[in-house]
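Quick log. Single chain, no ligands specified.
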Amino acid sequence: MTPAVRPVARGPHVRRRGIALALTVCGLGHGIAAQGRVDAGEQVAGVAAARFLDARWQPRKLSELPPGDALIVYFATVDCPMVRRYVPRLGAIAREYSSRGVTTLIVNVGAGDAFVDAVGQQVEHAPAAVFAKDHLLEVAAACGVDRSGAAVIIDRQWRVRYSGRIDDQHGFSVSRDRPQRNDLQAARDQVLAGEEVDVTRTEIVGCRITSPSPTSDVPVFSRDVAPILQRHCVQCHGSKSMTSLSLVGEADVRKHAAMLGEVVALGRLPPWSAAATGGPFVNRRGLSLPERETVLAWVAGGAPKSDGEPFGKDLHFPHREWSLGTPGRVLDGTTVVAVAHDEALRYRTVTFAHEFTADTWVDALEVRSTGGSPLQHVNLGLAAADGSYSPDGHVGNQVMHGDAIEFGAGQALRIPAGARLVAQLFYVAEGRSTAERVQLALRFPRTAVTREVRIARFGADTLDIPPNAAAHRVEAEWTLTDDAIAVSVFVQMHLRGRDVRVVAELPDGVRQSALLVPTFQFGRQETYVWWRGGTRWPRGTRLYATAHFDNSAWNIANPDPAARVRSGPLLSDERFRLALTWVPATEGPEIRVDPGSGTRTASEQAYGDPAGK
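-> predicted structure:
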C-alpha cells in the first residue's frame, strides 16, 4: 500500500528542525503512522478518533464535530499556491451547505505554518468552515492523504466516499476560465441524496506534506537557547513574575523543557493573536523561525545542561517599577479587589479618586496590580456618570506583563477637566486568594505636544445572536474626518467572540487589510499598535470591521449555546466595540506642558489655546 505521508528531500539542518520537531517535542510525534490509501466506501477505524487542535488550541477528535450527513475535509498549508486558489471556493461551499447538514473542516498540515496565520487563512476566506491543526498528522494519515489541496468526503458511518481534487480548473502550469468537472460538488450531492458516488477518486494537484524527521544537532543552552528566552519569555516568566511557570535559570528551564517545547511548537506562547495580514505591528510577540527551531531542537535533544559554557549561565531578569519610566503622578484605586482562589469569570471595576481640575496632557499610562494574582488584561477609560467603565470612554488597554500605553514623541492624550479615570480589570484564578491594590501611573510630556491623540470609538450597539449559531456575522464601520496617522486599534468582545477583521477603504477605492484576529481570546484582549508613522489614511477613509461570534457548543467558552445573546455589559451578554487611536497627519501649533502636572504652562494659558480647542 502507498504510504499516506512520505518523507521528502530536506534542506540544511537548520531548516529541518522546525518541521520535524514541531511534531516530536513533548511526545507529539508518537503514534503517527501512515494509514495508506483509503478506498472509497471503506470504513476506517481511525478516522473518527483522529486528533487535532481547534482554533483555540483545544485537543479534539473528528468524532466531536457536529453530527451531519456529510463531512468535507480539506487539507491546507498557508503558502501552497493551489491551496490559496481553492480556499475561497471552500468558503463558498461551507457557507452554502452548512444549513444542509454538511460540516466543512479546513485542516492545516503545514508543520512550519504559524498557528495564527493558519487560522487566519480559514477565517479570511472560509469563515463558515471549522479550523483544525493536524499537529500529529493523524487526520491526514487516517484519510490516506499525502498532499495539501486534497478534499475528502466522509459520511455518517465514517466511510470515505470521495478523495481528490475540488475541480479541474487549476493545475500546476495551466488554468481554465471555469472548471469542466466539479468533482467534489458532484460527490457531495450524491452522498446527500443517499446514492453511490460515481467518481470516488481523482488526482490531487497540491503540495506534498512534510513528515517529521530526527535532527542530530543539539543546541547549547547558554549559547543558543538562553538569549532567545531572554528576548521573548522572561518578561512574563521571570523571578518577579505573577505567572506560575517560572524560568528563573537553566535548572528551571530544563525542568519545564517539555512544556516549553509544546507551547513553542504550537505557537501558543509568546501570546499573539493577529495574523500576518494587516500590520506590521510594533508590539507583535513571537519567535522567529530560526529561534523556534533552536528551542525545539534543544528540547528534542533531551534539554542537555550547558556543560560549563563560559557565558549565559543564568537568565537575566531586568526589573523596573514602571515600564514607562518615572511617572509624573501615580493614582491609587479607591477600592481593594478581593480575588478568590477560584475566581469566577467576571470583570472588576476600580475607580481612581483623583478628579482632573484642568485639561491634563499625558503621553503614557500604565496600570499595575500589586497583590500577586494574574491580571490578564485591563481596560482604562473615562469614568461614566455612575463611575463605571464604558467603551464610549475607552482610553487604552494593557495586557499582563505587556507594554505601557504610550502614544509616541510629540503626541499626547488630553484628559478633560472634571474627568475621572476608571479601570475594568480581568483576573484569573491561581489557587490562592489575594487582595489587589490597583495603581495607575501617568507620564506627562517632556517636550512640546504637536499632535493631540484622538480616539474613535465605534461598533455594533445592538447585537442579537441566535442560539447555536457557529459563525454569526456582525459589522460596523467608521469614517475618518481628517487626514490621519493610525496609532493603534483595540477590539472588545466577550466569551462568544471568535474573530475580527478590519479593512480600510481609501477614498480612491483601494482596500487595505488593517487587522485580522482569527482567534479572539477574551482573557487576553490586546491593543494592536501599528508601526509608528507608517499607517496613514486620508480624510474620507472608511474602516469596515467584521466579526464572527460562536454561540455553538463547539465554543468551549460558551456559557449557554441555547441562549439568544444580546448586547450588554455582563460576560453572559456580548459586545462588539472598537477603539481606533489616531493623530492628525499634520502637526499643529506647539502646546507647552508642565512635565510635573500635565497642564499647559502659564505662558501658554496667557495666550489662549493655540490648537483652537
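The radius of gyration is 26 Å.
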